[in-house]
Each structure stands twice: as C-alpha cells, then as structure tokens.
Amino acid sequence: MEETISLKELLETLKKRLLLIVSITLVAAIASGVVSYFFLTPVYQASTQILVNQTKSDQTVYSPNEVQTNIQLINTYNIIMKSPVILDKVKDDLNLNMTTDQLNQKITVASETNSQIVNVSVQDPDAKVAAEIANKTAEVFKDQISTIMKVDNVSILAKATVGEKPTPIKPNKKLNVVIAAVVGLMVSVGIAFLLEYFNNTIKNEQDIEKILGLPILGVIATIDDKKMDELKLRKAARKTAVRGETLGS
Q: Residue ranges of the Polysaccharide chain length determinant N-terminal domain (predicted)?
C-alpha cells in the first residue's frame, strides 16, 4: 500500500517538535554570534589605483592600437605586481614580519574592464598596515616597472587611506548569524521529520489499519477528567430534577 502524507500531518509533526526546532535554531544562531563577535579576527581592506601606459611617445594623442596594447599588457602588470621582485622590496621597506608568500596572499590585483586602471587591494587585521602595504606596493611597482618592462608612465590615481573608524570587510557578523539560524532551522526540521519517521508507536486508528490491514469497526473516544466531571454533574442534576417532579406529583 502506497503511503501518503497530508499537509495536516506535516503541520502536526512540526507542532509536535516545535520546541526542538526552536531550540536548535536558537543554539545555532547564538553559537554563530559568539564565534563571530568574540573569536573571529576582523579583517580590514585598503585599496589604491594606478594607471599604467607604455613609454610616452612624441605624439600628443594615443592611437587606438596603442591603447589596446596597453590593455592587453595589464595582465602582465598584474602578475609582476605580485612577484617576489616587487613584494620582497615592499616587505623590506615596511619591515613586515611575514614571508613573501604570506604577503602575496594579502594582496589582490585586478584591472577595470577595458581600461588601463589597476586596483591594488590589501586585506589585513590592521587597517593601517593594509593601507601601508597597498601604497608601498604601488610605489615600488612604479619604481621597478621602468626597469623590468621599459615603462615609464605609471601614475598613482588614488592612495589608500584609513578613516577614523574603519569598518572590517569580514567577518559579516549579522550575515553569519542569519545564515546559522537558517541552517539550524533546516537541520531541526529535518531532524523532526526523521524522528517522526522512525517513531514506530501506534498513534491513531489509521496506524492500526495500515499495520494489520483490517478495516476499523469502531473507535472508543477518549474523554478527559473535566468532561467526565461535567457529565456526572449533569446526570446528578437530572436525577434531582426527576425526584423533585415525582415528589411534587
């Protein structure tokens, strides 16, 4: 016999396990909040922009081919900017207590679409250090690229700065709590249905019919104590009324 589950049964299961669902959801959200606010180290980001062209010619206006060549060279510049030639000098100039690989992982270099502008972003637990690394990387690249690729037209468009109250880019504490709550809700609902699925106790007359494969002839209704007391009082009142009528006649 194919078993079907009605919407009413699903809602009854959720209602029955409501305490479990709420508890797991709250625990997940609280745990995420505690970890995000007290254990995860905030990370700040600082960015700078540079413009890279080829060596200036005597022409006052660039040709379209020259601009296209500059755009194609941007990927090469991006690789050079994160190479040990640049990063070793940045590390030495700033006296950074980290390896070149660790410094490389902090730096992200990306170019604007169809442009000669390169964005240098640095992430670090210290906002001031992130800005110093970004600015120093741009400065060292500007000094070294003329020797590496004979390019002498590098301009720093915007330096990285640190505000009075910098905001970390991660962790996103509120988002972490919301995600944890949603995941906790999904897990708790799954556990509720799983417990109900493995619950083999007979809960109603339909379960008896499914297990035994026999039709139900009758059902004994359950009456709670309150209703029994009400029935007794009504019965006693009727008897009193009948006796009164008998005596009156």
A: 3-94
